């Protein structure tokens, strides 16, 4: 796990509390009611025994009954209101956290791997979201329980000071020991959650690649692998549960021993008449109630530490250490200004000295200079692993640069990430990424467009014949991640999606890999009719011949630049790439 | 809506009963705990009566001592029995999880296509957490609580028959009400889980698709989808939360009624002089002993509500049968086999036919080049061959035998399939190559990598075969394809299918790999799908598909040399297409 700076939990939680202050206040008031009506109920018990013992403090029997019933009805009313308000408030917290997270992830350069991704990230979000919602919700209970403890303290002290002090001292011990146990419980729980997240991730990957698993007949070995992970998690979960039982055991022990002490101390007082049976019942019943309150306070304290971890893990998922961004009020967004808003339509786009190394491998790109002029067609080529995709990603701000500068029409782009989006630029990654939903959803996303426009874009990528085979047309659902489509279809839908954006600069990362020659040629011809600037990764001659400029990459550096005729004369690598296709065409 | 009792009984029999040793220990500890539980209040009566009648401290202290002992023993029993039930429950849940995963792994693609990975995680892991409580706490919880209730009522009845009867009636009514309430609330709880799964499924997709969505400026879309799924979840969550707390409230009413009844009845008998204050004290304590089991029952029923919801979904999952039967008994041998399609007709569910009365024969040991535009049915043909789907009519044969006469296992084991989409796991390179199969030795792996000329690449990796994909090193698209090819070399196939296997490779790398592919195809029947015609050089047969029918089928050499053939025209077009491209470009430029 990556070491990160520690979040300032109190401040962060405070901001979550203050996000919707009135709702929080209402929640607090209602739950004070829920936790405090029980105190009055026990007074009715004392009144009853005092009545039976013939003490003047005894309540008439009908008062005992009416008060008892009324208290419970009141409690139900508080409880139902409380759950409504609490559900609402938890969701307010939940959705703020998730919204901010999503915002952060979309602000992060997308091709830059986050420490955790995919299913594992989701597993973390799921559980930590609950942790934080619990923490916020429980601060409300904390107020309520503390008030209950104080009221009970007053009542009991009026009966017997010594016994009350002993009782509260034992409560302090309970809270003390239970928070001491915090670290062990915390650790066990974290390990269990990590193991759980790993399992989630593996299940996600396995079922995401179910076809490959089935072809490989790997079901038994995959299952064995999961079973091993299950055992690991089970051991951690078991350990965690054992600590919880230790907690409970402590609670029982404390309760039993204190009851014994109370009975022992009360015996002399009862005999001399300093205490009534009703007082004794009040002590015993409060002991039960207050120990639970104290334990709950302990749980809340423990949970507070959990929320520190929760913020940390949230930070990992979102790739930030500025934790305040996680709890930021939506309103703050409106003040945010687009830094690079001034530039107009593309005239020139230049990347100078672009360098980017991958820390783990020797790969990356170094000192690449790329220049693109409006209306031109630029091809980037090179052998596998020469850095073609990396260059594209750096140019689009999908990767952060170690060094280098991007400028658009002569002006330096400060935040490429939010700059290279439509209408300036549209991008088709090498592996097309589609989402579940219909073809229409995938094409339009949030763009307002008519069916006519959609069909036009699909015509450009030669998809209309495919569309004819789908009875639901544009509304055909394409399954999870577009799995219902063939590889070529996915590639073309992704391309159409980019085309719809009518961007100045169209960037295609190896469009051809999933398409047959004829389809590809049709697409190129259709694209020719469009007025745009193209930047493509390819090693097809079709692309080379069309290019105004070809950039040959080798080991992450620009090896040569020129037209195909020039490069054939000057670049060995290029000749290698060219010749091969030459022989295939001749045959 | 509610899952049948038999499903629960089945689970109990299948996953718990074999652990009978621990189960019986659990029963003994539980009974011990219950006995000491009802014994303790007897000492309270002694204590209170002695105090009121001023009988001296000795009796009071003795009562205190015995009361404390009873409590301690009772709690010790409780803790011990919970340790045992946790351990039983966790094991049983994992066994169930494992079975559910095994089941889903065997389901065919038509099931998986409909489901996001996030949904599978919900179904196979998160859902089962609630069933875990069922295993660890439900059976013991329900049984213990019912016994505890009966025992407490019995003791009350022996002491004061009238109170016993009234409390028995009120407790039964409470239980009945709670069960009714449970049926009422289950639908609300069920509705939350799919809404939550949907929300997180969408969120995961948005995480994964960030590169494409972001670069196409789709932040607004993302936000809208997020808000939509969240809104649905919010409503279902609120309803579920209210439903859950309605149970709690019902419980509170039940408690209060029991205590009030105890007060009232004791008061009446006390006024008649029939009982002392100590007895009243004890009886109220007993009436309060009804609380914990009632509360436990409520808790268990609420768990059951959750388990019910998860159960319904688990039932759904387990009830889904693969549409492919696996009744075959034959095994494929190790020699190349012929491939025959005999009037095969196929359509994905409600769509138009993808393959139309398709018939062709490929002799053993020959290679077939399969051509066709995207969507012409090439991939479908391959999927039928691997039996991911069953044709609606017609037969697919390997050798003389229809596919479904072979076991699925033997069939898939005998076919090596390398496609353009490579699926990788975020785990070690070794596990990625072997799919976690520990029986494949490193030597085999190294041998396969060597054939593909990847030994240099391997030595460059930080941890060799143990390098973890994604964290130690990343793979380019081309490199992933090399991994997929290595996987194929680890098999001993009789049929090799290369579906655009080299599409993502640049020509130089491709040349290196094509030698390896030749090696793989040697002595085996092969089907090669390619867009680039040169990849098909050296194949024996060519088949061109058009909208699910054969447009052309014949010998490679014959077709190539016949200028009127479609194939020859394609070859020609490939050359001319390039030329026309250039002229287009020159005109516009």
Summarize the structure.
With 587 residues, chain A is α/β, with parallel strands linked by helices. Chain A contains 20 helices and 10 strands.
What order do the helices and strands come in, and which of them pair?
The complex is a heterodimer of chains A (587) and B (589).
Chain A lengths: L8 H11 L1 H33 L7 H47 L10 H40 L3 H20 L1 H27 L1 H6 L3 H54 L4 H42 L12 H5 L12 E10 L6 E10 L3 E5 L6 H8 L7 E6 L2 E2 L3 H4 L5 E4 L10 H6 L6 H10 L3 H5 L18 H14 L4 E5 L7 H12 L4 E5 L3 H6 L2 E6 L2 E6 L1 H7 L1 H15 L1
Parallel strand pairs in A: 3-8, 3-9, 6-7, 7-8
Antiparallel strand pairs in A: 1-2, 1-4, 4-5, 9-10
Helix pairs in contact in A: 2-3, 2-4, 2-9, 3-4, 4-6, 4-9, 5-8, 5-9, 6-8, 8-9, 14-16, 19-20
Chain B lengths: L4 H12 L3 H33 L4 H50 L2 H4 L4 H43 L1 H48 L1 H6 L3 H53 L5 H13 L1 H29 L19 E8 L8 E8 L4 E5 L6 H8 L7 E6 L2 E2 L5 H6 L1 E4 L10 H6 L7 H10 L3 H6 L16 H13 L5 E5 L7 H15 L3 E5 L11 E6 L2 E7 H6 L4 H23 L1
Parallel strand pairs in B: 3-8, 3-9, 6-7, 7-8
Antiparallel strand pairs in B: 1-2, 1-4, 4-5, 9-10
Helix pairs in contact in B: 2-3, 2-5, 2-9, 3-5, 5-6, 5-9, 5-10, 6-8, 6-10, 8-9, 8-10, 16-17
């Amino acid at each position: 796990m990556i070491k990160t700076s520690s979040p300032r939990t109190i401040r962060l939680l405070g901001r979550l509390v203050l996000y919707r202050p009135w709702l929080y206040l209402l929640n607090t008031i209602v739950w004070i009611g829920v936790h405090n009506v029980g105190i009055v109920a026990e007074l009715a018990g004392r009144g009853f025994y005092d009545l039976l013992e013939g003490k003047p403090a005894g309540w008439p029997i009908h008062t005992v009954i009416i008060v008892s019933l009324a208290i419970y009805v009141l409690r139900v009313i508080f409880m139902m209101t409380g759950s409504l308000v609490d559900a609402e408030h938890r969701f307010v917290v939940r959705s703020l956290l998730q919204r901010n997270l999503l915002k952060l992830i979309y602000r992060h350069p997308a091709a830059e791997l986050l420490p955790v991704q995919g299913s594992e990230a989701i597993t973390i979000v799921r559980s930590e979201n609950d942790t934080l919602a619990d923490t916020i919700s429980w601060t409300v209970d904390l107020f309520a329980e503390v008030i209950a403890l104080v009221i009970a303290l007053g009542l009991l002290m009026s009966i017997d000071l010594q016994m009350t002090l002993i009782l509260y001292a034992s409560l302090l011990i309970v809270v003390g020991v239970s928070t001491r146990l915090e670290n062990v419980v915390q650790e066990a729980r974290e390990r269990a959650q990590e193991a759980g997240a790993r399992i989630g991730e593996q299940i996600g990957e396995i079922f995401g690649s179910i076809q490959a698993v089935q072809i490989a007949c790997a079901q038994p070995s995959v299952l064995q692998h999961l079973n091993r992970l299950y055992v690991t998690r089970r051991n951690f979960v078991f350990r965690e549960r054992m600590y919880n039982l230790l907690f409970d055991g402590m609670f029982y022990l404390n309760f039993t021993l204190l009851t014994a002490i109370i009975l022992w101390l009360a015996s002399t007082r009862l005999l001399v008449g300093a205490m009534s049976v009703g007082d004794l019942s009040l002590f015993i019943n409060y002991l039960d109630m207050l120990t639970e309150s104290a334990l709950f306070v302990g749980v809340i304290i423990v949970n507070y530490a959990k929320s520190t971890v929760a913020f940390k893990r949230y930070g990992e998922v979102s790739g930030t250490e500025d934790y305040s961004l996680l709890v930021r009020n939506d309103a703050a967004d409106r003040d945010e200004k687009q830094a690079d808003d001034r530039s107009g339509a593309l005239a020139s786009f230049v990347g100078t000295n672009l360098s980017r190394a991958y820390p783990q491998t020797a790969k990356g790109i170094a000192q690449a200079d790329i220049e693109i002029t409006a209306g031109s067609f630029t091809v980037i080529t090179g052998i596998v692993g020469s850095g073609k995709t990396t260059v594209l990603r750096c140019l689009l701000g999908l990767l952060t640069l170690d060094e280098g500068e991007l400028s658009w029409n002569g002006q330096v782009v400060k935040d490429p990430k939010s700059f290279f989006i439509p209408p300036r630029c549209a991008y088709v990654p090498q592996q097309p990424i589609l989402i579940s939903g219909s073809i229409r959803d995938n094409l339009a996303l949030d763009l307002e467009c008519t069916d006519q426009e959609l069909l036009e874009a699909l015509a450009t990528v030669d998809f209309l014949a495919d569309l004819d085979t789908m009875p639901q047309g544009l509304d055909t659902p394409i399954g999870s991640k577009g799995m219902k489509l063939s590889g070529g279809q996915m590639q073309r839908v992704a391309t159409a999606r980019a085309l719809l954006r009518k961007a100045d600069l169209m960037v295609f990362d190896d469009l051809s890999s999933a398409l047959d020659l004829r389809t590809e040629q049709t697409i190129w011809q259709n694209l020719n009719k469009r007025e745009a600037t193209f930047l493509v990764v390819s090693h097809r001659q079709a692309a080379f011949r069309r290019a105004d400029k070809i950039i040959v990459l080798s080991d992450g550096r620009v090896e040569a630049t020129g037209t195909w005729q020039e490069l054939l004369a000057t670049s060995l690598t290029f000749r290698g790439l060219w010749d091969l296709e030459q022989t295939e065409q001749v045959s | 809506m509610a899952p049948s009792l038999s499903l629960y009984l089945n689970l109990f029999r299948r996953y718990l009963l074999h652990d009978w040793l621990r189960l019986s220990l659990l029963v003994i500890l539980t009974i011990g705990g219950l006995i000491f539980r009802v014994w303790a209040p007897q000492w309270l009566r002694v204590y209170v009566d002695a105090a009121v009648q001023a009988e001296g401290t000795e009796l009071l202290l003795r009562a205190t001592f015995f009361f404390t002992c009873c409590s301690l023993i009772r709690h010790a029993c409780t803790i011990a029995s919970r340790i045992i039930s946790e351990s039983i429950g966790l094991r049983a849940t994992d066994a169930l999880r494992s079975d559910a995963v095994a089941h889903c792994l065997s389901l065919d693609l038509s099931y998986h296509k409909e489901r996001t990975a996030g949904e599978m995680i919900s179904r196979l892991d998160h859902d089962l957490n609630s069933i875990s409580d069922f295993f660890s706490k439900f059976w013991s919880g329900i049984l213990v609580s019912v016994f505890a209730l009966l025992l407490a009522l019995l003791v009350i009845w022996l002491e004061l028959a009238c109170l016993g009867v009234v409390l028995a009636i009120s407790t039964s009514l409470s239980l009945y009400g709670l069960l009714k309430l449970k049926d009422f609330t289950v639908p609300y709880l069920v509705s939350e889980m799919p809404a939550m799964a949907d929300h997180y499924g969408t969120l995961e997709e948005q995480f994964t698709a960030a590169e494409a969505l972001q670069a196409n400026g789709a932040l607004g879309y993302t936000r809208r989808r997020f808000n939509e799924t969240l809104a649905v979840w919010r409503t279902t969550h609120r309803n579920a939360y209210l439903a859950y707390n309605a149970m709690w409230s019902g419980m509170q009413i039940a408690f209060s009624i029991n205590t009030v009844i105890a007060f009232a009845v004791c008061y009446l008998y006390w006024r008649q002089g029939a009982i002392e204050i100590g007895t009243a004290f004890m009886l109220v304590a007993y009436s309060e002993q009804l609380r914990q089991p009632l509360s436990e029952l409520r808790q268990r029923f609420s768990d059951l509500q959750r388990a019910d919801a998860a159960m319904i979904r688990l039932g759904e999952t387990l009830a889904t049968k693969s549409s492919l039967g696996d009744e075959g008994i034959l095994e494929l041998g190790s020699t190349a086999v012929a491939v025959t399609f005999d009037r095969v007709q196929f359509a994905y569910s409600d769509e138009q036919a993808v393959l139309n009365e398709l018939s062709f024969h490929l002799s053993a040991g020959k290679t077939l080049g399969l051509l066709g535009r995207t969507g012409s049915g090439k991939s479908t043909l391959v999927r039928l061959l691997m039996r991911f789907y069953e044709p609606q009519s017609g037969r697919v044969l390997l050798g003389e035998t229809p596919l479904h006469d072979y076991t699925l296992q033997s069939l898939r084991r005998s076919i090596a399939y390398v496609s353009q989409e490579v699926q990788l796991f975020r785990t070690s390179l070794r596990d990625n190559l072997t799919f976690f199969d520990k029986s494949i030795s490193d030597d085999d792996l190294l041998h396969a990598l060597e054939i593909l000329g990847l030994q240099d690449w391997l030595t460059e990796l930080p941890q060799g075969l143990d390098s973890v994909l994604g964290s130690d090193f990343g793979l380019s698209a081309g490199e992933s394809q090399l991994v997929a090819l290595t996987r194929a070399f680890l098999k001993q196939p009789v049929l090799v299918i290369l579906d655009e296997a080299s599409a993502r490779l640049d020509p130089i790398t491709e040349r290196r790999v094509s030698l390896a592919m030749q090696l793989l195809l040697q002595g085996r029947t092969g089907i090669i799908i390619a867009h680039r015609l040169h990849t098909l050089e050296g194949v024996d047969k060519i088949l061109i598909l058009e909208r699910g029918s054969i447009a052309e089928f014949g010998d490679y050499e014959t077709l190539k040399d016949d200028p009127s053939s479609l194939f020859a025209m394609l070859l020609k077009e490939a050359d001319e297409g390039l030329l026309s491209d250039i002229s287009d470009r020159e005109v516009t430029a």
